[in-house]
Amino acid sequence: MWGQQIIQQVILGLIGLSAGITVAGGLFSFIIELGILSDFADRTHTGEHILLYEDAAALGGILGNIFFVFQISIPGGTWILPLFGILAGMFAGCWAMALAEVLNVFPVFIRRIKISRCIPWAILGMAVGKCVGGLLFFWNRWGGF
Questions:
Q1: What is the rounded average pLDDT for all residues in the chain?
Q2: Helix, strand or coil for residue 46?
Q3: Which residue stretches, if any, does this entry annotate as coiled coil (predicted)?
């Protein structure tokens, strides 16, 4: 009876691990396909390090999951958290913009409503809106900073 439970737990663990690897592989493939990492390398003129960027993105996802699943506390987390939040927000914003660029959302929208002169202000408005929305979310969730 006890041996059967161990076998069931091992099988469930292997299924969970396999599913996680599959989903993570799909997510990182999606990030790479969108061209976020190659776009960063192109803009910084560091294209020879693209494999390092891809490895760093995968390692970040792996470590983030390990810290989340096992509830690992990071020393100095209260000082590191704002920096992490800023960097994660920048990455998420770049990801959203890359997805929108791939889908040609903005060029079509800009032509339809004829605002080509106001593009910098529209981008600034989206960035400020995302920032204010994130601040309000965390302000309401934890009752202040």
A1: 79
A2: coil
A3: none
Token pair of 114 as six digits: 């004829």
- Rounded CA gap, 71 and 16, in Å? 18
Q: Rounded CA gap, 18 and 79, in Å?
A: 35
Domain ranges of the chain: 2-74
Measure Cα distances from 145 to 5, 82, 135 in Å.
46, 11, 9
CA distance 54 to 60: 10
Which SS3 state, helix, strand or coil, does residue 10 take?
A: helix
Other Cβ atoms within 10 Å of 98 Cβ, number = 19
- Distance between CA atoms of residues 127 and 28, nearest Å: 24
* Overall pTM > 0.85: no
pLDDT recorded at residue 78:
76
5-17: pLDDT as tens digits:
899 999 988 888 8
pLDDT tier at 102, thresholds 50, 70, 90: low
Residue 71 reports pLDDT greater than 80: yes
Tokens encoding 41: 């390398």
